[in-house]
# Entry
Amino acid sequence: MEGLGELESKIEKLLNEEKQMRLSGEVSGTKKAVTEILQLCYDARAWKTLNDQIVLLSKRRGQLKQAVTAMVQQAMKYIDETPDIETKTELIKTLNSVSAGKIYVEIERARLVKTLAKIKEEQGNIAEAADLMQEVAVETFGAMAKTEKIAFILDQVRLCLDRQDYVRAQILSRKISPRVFEVDASKEKKKAKEGDNIVEEAPADIPSLLELKRIYYELMIRYYSHNNDYLEICRCYKSIYDIPTVKENSALWIPVLRKICWYLVLSPHDPMQSSLLNSTLEDKNLAEIPHFRLLLKQLITMEVIQWTALWNLFSNEFENEKNMLGGSLGDKAAENFRERVIEHNILVVSKYYSRITLKRLAELLCLSIQETEKHLADMVVSKALVAKVDRPMGVVCFRIAKDSSDILNSWAMNLEKLLDLVEKSCHQIHKETMVHKAALKV
# Structure
């Protein structure tokens, strides 16, 4: 008790000193008095007194901004020194309430919220941690380092994905533009020196920009995987593949390139998929995994693929993917793989035939007539193909249906050709008549 009384008398003395300095507008003196009070509480390990003094000092009339900033920064150093998790949480909450709504300590508040969210996450309260992180809009903080901002937003996205809140995860991920990872670091440093606003250095535990790029795309892969958006997953892996540190190490890029090939094969046929397929085939690194080069080559060659033979060849590779980077390709991947091969085969047939019987088409695809009709209808609905099925006759027509304007244009062209022929014929008749008359006169 004697020690506590001594502490209170020392604090009282410093509070009077702080009051004099504050009222006279002495910034350095006020900061010194405030930090000394906190240091006294810390040295005595009087955590409750420390919390009380932080609240008291922040609420004093006309308290200087610089003093509040110094106080919050000083108290943040004590967080890791707290004896137990309850004391730690209490101190963070006190500092959080003091810094709430104050722009001059917004960075400190963001770091406090992140620390508190980490504690909640470790305790298994994912939803609570996600709600805490979402309260802070770091993208509006001018003085925060770019890498720290990105790392904070990525934490927000990760927590949303952990609680399976995919809509909010997408909204938060859009706060980061992929172009931010392509900025040259040397230019960034020059800009920071020239600017009037002082940008704080990022803490030591914040990853580099290239590491953040990898984390960003890994999180986006998790987001796109929940609804099997294969093409977007492929593009994310392509971005990871282009990171210099990944491209330099074959142990890192081979698993990524395998995933690019698999997701290209699983993606529905469209111009973007076709473009990525061709650019991947041109990659010299594909020679290291010839099996996958063969797979992509088969999809680009306009020949019918035998599904059973293809699956026998690649089923082991498909199973091996579970032990590779990013894990298995998903529950429906094998089924989607078969669908893509069927779609490829239908497109090949449509290139060679203008009309074909359903029975013959089913034979070429190694499917039943009902399955063939279903896949054909799905492709027509998704506008990947133009076809008409005469079900009573059992005939499929792959001719492109012309609209009214095309028909009118073709009629106009035909009439023009006809009139041109008539004119030429009249000219020839007139010419023959003139020659005949000239011969009679002679």
The mean pLDDT is 82. The chain has 21 helices and three strands. The beta strands are 355-357, 388-390, 395-397.
